[in-house]
Design goal:
With 167 residues, the chain is of the alpha+beta class. It has one domain: Aminopeptidase (3-Layer(aba) Sandwich), CATH 3.40.630.30. Helices cover 28% and strands 31% of the residues.
Length: 167
Amino acid sequence: MTDDLRQVAPVVVVPATWRDLRAVWDLEKLCFPEDSWPWIDILAALTFPDTVRLKALVGEATVGFIVGDRRRSEGLGWIATLGVHPGYRRRGIGAMLLDRCEIDLGVPRVRLTLRPSNLGARRLYDLAGYQQIDLWQRYYRNGEDGVVMEKLILPDHPSRDGGPLVR
């Protein structure tokens, strides 16, 4: 991905499909080398009903993705995975994906789990209004705990900034 593309092309958030398997799986492995999902789980996430799956594009390049699991009977959604290419972090792409996923989930509460050591993600979720509600001991493969966070979605405020999902 060239510097010229980063400076000129806007970021666009659009639905992801099974056709995005390779791009999403490659990003998943890049973003989460210790905990990346196997390709079959990525394919399932890109095809199962009641799943929100989005990608962030810069030009034709997929630079981010998110998968949200809708559990309507519980009034709850789970952010299953959210990743942004390392060369595109700290540009608001993760926040755009999170905003859109929260809206598309259409549930009053959204939860997620992250590593305590993932300070960038923690900052993103804190700024988005998530609160820590639990700590799952030894949740990750390497024994690191999992921080469980939750956000209550206000019906009259579906997005933090109310702005477009194209930047």
